[in-house]
C-alpha cells in the first residue's frame, strides 16, 4: 500500500503534491501527515528534493485554506448561515460551531491563524472565521504560508528519518498509512451519521 501511494506521489511530481495538499485542506481525503510524510520518504530516496517539495506542499496548503477564507470573506454571516443550516450534516458543523470558532479567533487574535497550523483539529477551520472577520488577505496568506511551511518541513523531515528504518518497518508503515486514511474517512462518516442539529 505504501509503495503504491509513493509511486503515485512520485509520478504526480511536485504539482501532484500541491494538488493533494490543496484538496486535503478543502476536504481532507488523505491527511497531510501521510502526503508530506511520504514525500519525505521520496526525498530520502532521491526522487524528490526537499526545498521544491516544501514549497509546493506549502503552496497547496495555503491555497486550500484560502478557499475557506474567501468563502467567509465574500459571503459574510448573512449569506453563509442559510448554507450551513441546510448542509450542516455534510459539513459536520452547524452555525453555533462557526460562531464559537469566530469568537475564539477574535479573542486570541490573528496570530492563531499561524499557531493553529500545528493543530490537527482547527488548522483548516480557523480560515473561515478569519474570512468572516475580514482579516487582511495578505496577512492571512502570510501567516498561513509561514505556519504551513513549518508544519510541512517537520513532516518531510519525519518522513526522511523514517525512511532509514523502512526496510525493517515496512509492514508497520503500511498499517500506519492505511490506518491514517481509514481513520480520517471513518471519522467523517461517524460525524455525518451521528450529526444532530442542536436546535
Structure described in brief:
This protein has 199 residues and is an all-alpha fold. Helices cover 81% and strands 0% of the residues.
Main features:
single chain; globular; 81% helix; mainly alpha; 199 residues
**Shape label:** globular
The counted number of beta strands is 0
Provide a count of the helices: 8
Instruction: Give the uncertain stretches in residue-range form.
Output: none
Broad structural category:
mainly alpha
- Give the termini distance in whole angstroms: 43 Å
Overall tally of domains: 1
Structural features, described:
- With 199 residues, the protein is mainly α.
- The chain has one domain.
- It contains eight helices and no strands.
- It is globular, with a radius of gyration of 18 Å.
- The N and C termini lie far apart (43 Å).
- The relative contact order is 0.16.
- The model has no long low-confidence stretch (mean pLDDT 85).
Topology summary:
Elements: H1 2-26, H2 32-45, H3 50-91, H4 95-108, H5 112-115, H6 127-132, H7 137-163, H8 166-194
Helix pairs in contact: 1-2, 1-3, 2-3, 2-7, 3-7
Amino acid at each position: 500500500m505504501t509503495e503504491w501511494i509513493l509511486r503515485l506521489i512520485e509520478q504526480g511530481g511536485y504539482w501532484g503534491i500541491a494538488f493533494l495538499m490543496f484538496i486535503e485542506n478543502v476536504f481532507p481525503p488523505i491527511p497531510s501527515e501521510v502526503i508530506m510524510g511520504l514525500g519525505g520518504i521520496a526525498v530520502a530516496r532521491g526522487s524528490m528534493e526537499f526545498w521544491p517539495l516544501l514549497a509546493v506542499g506549502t503552496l497547496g496548503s495555503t491555497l486550500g485554506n484560502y478557499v475557506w477564507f474567501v468563502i467567509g470573506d465574500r459571503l459574510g454571516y448573512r449569506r453563509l448561515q442559510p448554507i450551513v443550516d441546510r448542509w450542516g450534516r455534510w459539513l459536520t458543523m452547524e452555525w453555533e460551531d462557526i460562531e464559537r470558532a469566530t469568537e475564539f479567533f477574535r479573542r486570541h487574535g490573528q496570530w492563531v491563524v499561524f499557531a493553529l497550523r500545528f493543530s490537527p483539529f482547527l488548522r483548516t477551520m480557523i480560515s473561515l472565521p478569519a474570512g468572516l472577520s475580514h482579516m487582511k488577505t495578505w496577512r492571512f496568506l502570510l501567516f498561513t504560508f509561514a505556519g504551513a511551511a513549518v508544519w510541512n518541513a517537520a513532516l518531510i523531515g519525519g518522513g526522511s528519518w523514517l525512511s532509514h528504518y523502512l526496510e525493517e518497518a515496512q509492514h508497520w508503515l503500511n498499517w500506519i498509512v492505511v490506518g491514517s486514511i481509514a481513520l480520517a474517512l471513518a471519522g467523517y462518516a461517524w460525524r455525518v451519521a451521528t450529526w444532530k442539529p442542536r436546535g
